Sequence to fold (383 residues):
Amino acid sequence: MVNSSERYRFGSVKMSTTINVMVGLFLVTWLSSSCNAARTNVTSSTYRPFPAILIFGDSTVDTGNNNYFSAVFRASHLPYGMDSPGYAASGRFSNGKLFSDILAERFNIKRMVPPYLKPFLTPQELVSGVCFASSGAGYDERTSLITRAIPVSNQIYMFKRYIAKVKGIVGEAKAAEIISNALVLVSAGPNDFIFNYYQTARASRRLQFSNISGYQDLILNKLQGIVRELYNLGCRKIVVGGLPVMGCLPVQMTMEITKLTNRTCVEDQNRDSVSYNQKLQNLLPKLEASLPGSGILYSDVYKPMMDMLQHPSKYGFKETKKGCCGTGLLETTFLCNVFSRTCPNHSEYMFWDSIHPTEAVANYYGQFIEPRIRRKFLSAKGR
Fold:
């Protein structure tokens, strides 16, 4: 099902000998001048600390992979993407860019990160990095049985095929160099807890684990396995995201029936996020120490998000308890559609739909995490 969508094609038109020669000369010229610094929409004179960006995870970083197979969650329609160039939905669960796009641009890699499953990606697009994330995915494979997303573990198989393609473009040695110096983002986890633990008393993992701590440990064990696989495939600069303030997501407040008339955060879910994040912070340094030459950075999502919730005026937000799309209480994916009204000023809303943040939040988070990435990977010590 996925294989047919990811076939790499340069075209099916039979070219004359003259055109073949011209194309060959073009490719030689391009490879010699651009493969060492391949990227999209960035001039060759611009300093670029990472040769590529590689992204794994869920809808927080999915730039459109779900558009190319029968996934439950898609953002292939307006009002998603209405603030993007061309007023077009790209598959991003946002009104515009995701924070991964923001980082790619801030590090001069490219302006928008393409999804790996998008047909006809150019050599330049591939070499400078792609996104493997799938909306609705989790570290727990059971999550994707519900959402029909590509689990993070299966995204690794896609990455292996990607590596083969890059080797075909720039050669084995250069491909290894690109991957080892690429900025790698891993962002998932909320779907695992929302679909497999919180939503109903009969959630599959809730029946298996008597308390949330056991399920957290399962997720962290799977995450650790993902990071080790990425390392074994050549990745060395890896950023791992923690959980957001899950109890303050508009949909989670809506699902808490007792809070319908008084929309407040679900504090036990927030405490779960805090405890999971602490476990993750304890795990990552040990994992890094066990992987020679690796750099693994914890990406704190919780604290900046909580600061936005507690001090909205500091960020220009006037609404933090519901999304901009529709009522903002429950709408997401197909429930947020072309018939949904949207708020008049998008940047004044923290959430675009009932789960996903606006581009304004993505910009603020990009500003928050960028200097931490620089200190970790680009300082004299980090090098």
Summary: Strands lie at 53-57, 183-187, 237-241, 295-299, 319-323, 349-351. Residues 31 and 121 are 16 Å apart (CA to CA). The domain at 37-245+270-303+359-378 is CATH 3.40.50.1110 (Rossmann fold). Confidence is low (pLDDT under 50) at residues 1-45.
